[in-house]
Design a protein that fits this description.
7-stranded mixed β-sheet; Rossmann fold; alpha/beta
Length: about 270
């Protein structure tokens, strides 16, 4: 796979049409499920946000950065924006293309402003703009990141890096189980930030299977569904063996499983 000007040639990467994406994320099974507070999916999202995504995004912020406004692009049902630590009085605004997601977010977090509109309509300049698990879903990843860079003094991104063994045969596109249009390697994720006209300030690559978050996800699945791994008994047993081997042999696990790139970036200074 290649990226030119930050855009991938992976299957499905050139899908267009806002109406298509509104329908996709209004009706996609995983989003319908996460809008139910009692579902396993909603509980896992909350766990991932609080123990994996937010801590790693915060760790990417340079120490001298202060902020009183946070905008999240692609906020879905609002968990990350609500959990994002901020001083009292900080303005938080979330944008999402799905009206169903926005309606759910407004009910769950009435103290936060959620908008079912184009983030480019935001007036002013935000201190921090967050894009977490978003760029892999949009046709023009570079264009969206470039526009986000114009909106905020600091941009925080979380990009899944799926150039790994278990995703090699995955068919990317709008029919992907998670709606991912492309996969990124670490180099491609960092190149995307640069292609969008931004300067990378800090970054880290993290494998969730090496974290306590993953252990907690397994325990939660076992508690709710009776098994830590999905599938029949044989499939679950195989997954258990693979996961155990990957955690014991770190180099193998890091080639086998996907990771995430957490990075902060800002506009390049004019020369």
């Amino acid at each position: 796979m290649s990226i030119e000007n930050g855009r991938s040639d992976a299957p499905g990467a050139q899908v267009n049409g806002d109406d298509f994406y509104r329908r996709l994320y209004d009706d996609k099974a995983e989003y319908v499920a996460r809008r139910d507070d009692t579902s396993l999916e909603a509980r896992i999202i909350g766990l991932e946000v609080n123990t994996f995504k937010v801590p790693n995004l915060i760790a990417a912020i340079p120490r001298d950065v202060e902020y009183s406004s946070v905008v999240e692009i692609g906020c879905a049902t609002g968990e990350l924006l609500a959990a994002f630590p901020a001083p009292a009085g900080t303005r938080k605004v979330g944008f999402d293309i799905s009206s169903e997601n926005v309606a759910c977010a407004r009910v769950r977090h009435p103290d936060i402003e959620f908008l079912n509109s184009d983030f480019r309509e935001f007036e002013g300049l935000a201190d921090i703009v967050v894009l977490s698990d978003v760029l892999e879903h949009v046709p023009d990843d570079c264009g969206m990141l470039r526009d986000a860079g114009r909106l905020g003094r600091l941009v925080l991104v979380n990009i899944p890096l799926e150039d790994n063994w278990l995703n090699r045969t995955r068919s990317y596109g709008p029919d992907d189980v998670s709606g991912h249009l492309r996969r990124y390697s670490l180099d491609e994720g960092l190149a995307l930030i640069e292609s969008a006209g931004l300067r990378t300030l800090q970054w880290r690559q993290v494998w969730i299977h090496e974290t306590e978050c993953d252990q907690q996800r397994r325990r939660l699945r076992r508690q709710v569904r009776g098994a830590a791994f999905s599938g029949g008994k044989m499939a679950a047993a195989v997954k258990q063996v693979v996961w155990s081997a990957a955690t014991l042999m770190r180099p193998v696990g890091r080639r086998m499983f996907a990771s995430n790139l957490f990075a902060s970036a800002s506009q390049r200074e004019a020369s």
